[in-house]
Amino acid sequence: MPALLEIPESTAVALISDTHANLTALEAVIEDIAKKGLTQIVMLGDIAGKGPRPAEVLDRLRQLEIPCLFGNWDELLIRRLVETSAPEMPSMTEALEWQRAKVGLERLEWLRDLPYALDIPRASGLVRLVHASSKGVWSRVRENDPLENFYELFAATPEVGLDAPTPLAVGYGDIHTVLVRHLRSFPENNPSLRGKMVFNVGSVGNPLDSNVPSYAVLHGSSNLEISFIRVAYDNELECSIAKKSGMPQLEEYLEETRTGMYRPRGLT
Ligand SMILES: [Fe+2]
User: Fold this and answer.
1) Residue spans of the chain under pLDDT 70
2) Model's pTM, two decimal places?
């Protein structure tokens, strides 16, 4: 079963994802969340990987006691600790080794134990959070995918639990792109999906629909209300930190950070 976050109905939740070792962006987003008076945050995975400060980002999330989900980059990093379904990435070996060395064993073990899904019960219905889909961290649902792929986010699977209840809404990260889908049409054999909602919170540390980080707010309301917020930050400060870090694949990181455009080869 998914982890459960039981909070008062009136408590709004800031939903962040895909920090990807970009501490500059994370601090800007945390500051914005605090300014808005939001006290509850949930993180949807891909904490480390890509950027120059993976350990610092992970420590900051732990310091703030933010519930975190497991992402595909988190799985890549723990390959040595457990059998994983993470694909072999020869072109990424050097970058992954650099990230693992920065993160260290204790943090890798913490990443290993993160849950795949988290449910937030609301009066309007259950809100489920996953990194990529209900089928696991490598099952990607892209913005322009057919509607059938969005239906799968609501499935009870071994990853979220075969007896998991069907949520009203599913929020995810992974594709680094903000989106909302209202399932106004639904499969004939499953009318229960009518009226469900899917949303993607985008990315804090590696947005690819803009170069400006995003997060979502699940409002403390008797109706299901989601809004999205962009937080401009100092991209060039992050680039200067990356340059001094000695990280592999620096040029790709600088380009993505400055432009918000996906590198030709690599992973989200
Ligand atoms: Fe990611």
Assistant:
1) 264-268
2) 0.94
Residue 194's pLDDT is 83
Q: Which amino acid is at 143?
A: E
In the reported structure, the alpha carbon of residue 192 is separated from the centroid of ligand 1 by a whole-number distance in angstroms of: 30
H-only helix segments in the chain? 23-35, 54-63, 72-77, 93-112, 147-151, 235-245, 250-259
Task: Answer yes or no: are the C-beta atoms of 15 and 216 closer than 8 Å.
Answer: yes
* Distance in Å, CA 175 to ligand 1 centroid: 6
Residue 6 CA to ligand 1 centre (angstroms): 26
For residue 129, how far is its CA from the centre of ligand 1 (angstroms)? 15
- The reported pLDDT for the residue numbered 237 is 98
Structure-block tokens of residue 154: 């609501």
Spatial distance between the Cα atoms of 131 and 76, rounded to a whole number of angstroms: 14
Contact 46, 73 (CB under 8 A): yes
Q: What's the rounded Cα separation, in Å, for the pair 220 and 216?
A: 13
Q: Which domains does the chain have, with CATH numbers?
A: 9-259 (3.60.21.10)
Tell me, in angstroms, the distance from the centre of ligand 1 to residue 1's CA. 23
CA of 123 to the centre of ligand 1 (A): 31
Distance 86 CA to ligand 1 centre (A): 14
Tell me the CA–centroid distance for residue 268 and ligand 1, in Å: 4
User: Residues 257, 238: contact at Cβ < 8 Å?
Assistant: yes
What is the predicted pLDDT for the residue at 225?
94
What phi and psi, each to the nearest 5 degrees, are found at residue 86? -60, 130
